[in-house]
Amino acid sequence: METRYNSKDVEARWHKTWAENNSFAPSGKGEPGALHLGHALNDTLQDILVRYRRKTGRDTLWIPGTDHAGIATQAVVEKRLFQDEHKTRHDIGRDALVERIWKWKDEYEARITKQLKSLGVSCDWSRQRFTLDPVCAKAVRHAFFNLFKKGLIYRGKRLVNWDTKLQTAVADDEIYYEHVKGHFWTFKYPLADGSGFIPVSTTRPETIMGDTALAVHPNDERYAQFIGKMLKVPFVDREIPVIADAILVDKDFGTGSVKVTPAHDPNDYATGLRHKLPMINIMNDDGSLNENAGKFQGLKGQAARDAVVAGLEELGLLIKVEDHEMDVGHSDRSKTVIEPYLSDQWFVKMDVLAENAMNAVKSGEIKIIPERYANKYLDWLAEKRDWCISRQLWWGHRIPIWHTDASEDELKAAFAGRDDIYFYKAENGGYLVCSQEEDLKEDAIPGRVLKQEEDVLDTWFSSGLWPHSTMGWPENTDTLKRYYPTSVLVTSRDIITLNMGTVPFHTVYIHPKILDGNGQTMSKSKGNGVDPMDIEEKYGTDALRFVMASLCTDNQDVRLPVKKEKQPDGREINTSEKFEIGRNFSNKLWNACRFLYPQLEQAGALAAELPMDKSLFALEDKWILSRLQTTIKDATRMLEEYHFAELAGFLYRFVWDDVCSSYHRRKEERHGYSQLRAEERARLAPPGDAVHYRRAQQHFVPGQRNGDQPRMAQGRRIAHRREDRSRIRPGIRRGGKRAWRAWPLQREPRHQAQRRGERRRCRNRSQCEGLHGYHHRTLGSF
RNA sequence: GGGCGAUUAGCUCAGUUGGUUCAGAGCGUCUGCCUUACAAGCAGAAUGUCAGCGGUUCGAAUCCGUUAUCGCCCACCA
Prior knowledge:
By secondary structure, this protein is of the alpha+beta class. It is built from 25 helices and 26 strands. The strands form nine sheets. The protein has a four-stranded antiparallel β-sheet with strand order 4-3-12-14.
């Protein structure tokens, strides 16, 4: 064996073993693209939990997989299509694009699977799933149908976040804000009767053609006389009222008047609803101004803005232009400005569902760890904002709805006796027909046309169903009966999962976010991201996993100082000195095993034949056994409480201080190992010690059974507590003198110990069995 | 503006009821060792107004109040 732990060699052997045995069985959700450090953290924690449960005799299931990441994936493939062939998705059509995305998906799925496997996660790979698999698609359809039938899904024109490049609605959390320098234009809004004007300021003059009111504060004396009067919208000569609204208007801000554009601003939209104002959409899907914008039709973005401002100036309406800084929402995927946009979308009503989810948290049915996040989650749920589930994409689960202008009688006649079909009247005429199982034919209703909905569902709709769908729901499969509901959702702070119906897990563990040394979020664009694969390459998987676990405190963020480093192959990678601790620990375990192997080999044969007498154990044997007991107990508690960093630290100290610096050291001293050759040492090794070693090692470094390196960074870690330290005092780290001080025995001259020859044997069968039972029980409970 | 978190050694962080070796660990630094499991190691050393101020207490890194700085979330940004 090498004196250093060579992670590459060892890991190569392990992956082979795992592959052949298919020995691991898995809940988890994968992600597209490449693994980043957050995934490594998340998956390490899940793996620790899964291995812990499995080792303590639980029937565990961890299903690996990936979601289809609708927007992200389609955006990537569309971009590629354009770069390679200068074509848009409309050039090749829905089917062809979807086909291309499937191909790309196969690539990234293969990559992510490979990376997950190299992380050593113990999922059941035979059950690997993808959210667009037929079994998942079926679950999605059933879930949608159920909600639809309960009246919890509706379609309507609502203001949504619109990505004008990808031309789809996007979720709030798919938007990032950029602080930009803009302008604040103040202009005259002329009264319709020509008797004067009201000054108004805006950051978005180009939306003026969509104005349907001008709001002032009801208590603002300056404008009291104008309330109820009509104004004339420049360029389009439409008349709009002056209204009073205390919610929208802050009379001390700007001019104290606000132009109201309900179709293009969330607050204006709300105001429009309050005052029942018309909502005039002046934009096309691509963000260009439409026919409602009059002479500005066809202009887009900055050009539209400039033209409108120039127009206002021409009309003599412009009063002043000021600099103004503001946060502007951008789409994560296309990096373009997000427009609030009025469009037909599908929504899930959240009032009842949110109430259920809140109750589940309040009652303790779902436990959120750390607890402080429970309030945040409740606050978030309390808003009960309806969830926009439609996306104008081609990649995803197509909404199982068919539009028709058939009458209710015709529908009833066509679908009589069908409980897999449900329909209701749409907001804007016609009927919406939902089919649970099969796609409907265009001519399913004689004389009428059925047209399938073009939109697909938000990816979250399907990934939120992961615990159900991967286990075969809605069929009542054996897997579902056996494993549902699941135990734990391990997630990052910003991902909030919705549950639709039953409670899918009893615990949500929220792990910290890894930042760089300057407290910055790691990202590709900043170039400060650490690639877990680079760390595996440089320090080994165990090191990576150990450090991931030891970073995982109760904090909201943890910092990982990042430094650039040139590799031998010329590649520059981001790495961190933090990982050295993991590598060093791997090496320590490796060498502890090298110390023990000769003795273990002896013990293997002897233990089977010889009875063992516990009373003949040397003091240090009893001591280390007692240490083992308390560390097992405490480590178990830490696992139960999700204290991963604490756990990693305790096990580190147990192995390094107690086992190596104290116990092994003592063995060396007692038997004068340092003067002997390896073979002789093996011969002298007391079987009692060796049996213990064997048990202990199988326990926390089980790799050694195969004559291989310990897989320590997993979950079977052992630690001691502070109060124990005060009793036995091994808390003092390292060091000869300090380690000795840790001993429960008086130090004695070496020759005395040797003279007494504290070798032990198993003297009788019953005692030996007792010992084995003792070991079994305690080890098994971990 | 509202809520949450953080501030402890040069760096990254522990410190779970206020109390005994509670002022700690790793990394880094300095000194000496290639001692037969481990130089990715071993033996030693230096390093702190526990952010500031005030309070409670026999006793405070720990509890309370307050200020400052940093971060996160939510709302607002016409």
